[in-house]
Protein SEH1 (Theobroma cacao), 324 residues
Amino acid sequence: MEKPLATLERGTTCSAWNYCGERLAAGSVDGSLSILDSRDSSSSSFICSSKLKASEAGIVKVAWIPPEYGDAVACICEDGTLSIWEELVEGTQPPQWKLCKSFKTSSKVLDVQFGVNQTSLKMVAAYSDGFVKIFELLDPLELKNWQLQAEYQNVIDSVSTFGKASCLTACISWNPQRGEGQESSFILGFNSNTPQLNSPKVWEFDPAHQRWLPVAELALPGDKGDQVYSVAWAPNIGRPYEVIAVASQKGIAIWHVGSTPDLDGRLSVEKAALLSEHNSEVWQMEWDMSGMTLATTESNGPVRLWQSNLNGAWHEQAAFEPTS
């Protein structure tokens, strides 16, 4: 008989495993942040080791910082604030979670993700006005020292600005590769009332001019205004192209993105498949470590696993229904 891996408290709104799968962070509707750890190295069950009040507003998203920068979690709250909490050890006292940075702006933070390159840690945050901000950590030993590196809206034409944009949700996924000489890149999409902002775009850092450039747009001409609910960049284990999944109102599109830019600096894109068997909107997707299996979660509960065969045809491998 299957046993639960971890039991979350009533009122839990979001959760995230750390990079090693050893710890689970969970946010609650009352603004509390819980950290669950394995009982011991041989146990497969998790218990709450720390619980703290992170906000007076409910927490809607949690994200772990990459492990080489310590044990720390970013929290997005219902009021749109973003904060980073770090586990600190002082003397012989038990570890304590403390606030190390709070970001407050006039617009709400909708999503946040962290990316690592050869030189630094970067954080990309998407906001309710359609803007994205990229911060860089100035000191790897001080998670409170962040510098704003760039700020722009999610449009191909950098001249255009949509000041009255209203975005309900946003989704970000960093390129998981960390190869030598490979520049930082991520995919960003919005669920907004401004069609130009919605379509997912791949942004890549241009070190020669010290700026971020849109190098690909993952939408067919008739789909560019579709609201995007989730994006997921697959790990690459030797393919000559990247694989990115995009969930919209029409289903889940699997895109192949080339690695060699054309004369305009753009990457080639090909829509390889459309998975439209879901009965409701898909709000979360995760790839396995090999980038071969995609897990998707629908708004009404079911979790599905997808794989492609050797001919590139995608099929549903398994489906899990909620027990209650």
In short: DSSP finds one helix and 24 strands in the chain. The two ends are 17 Å apart (CA to CA).
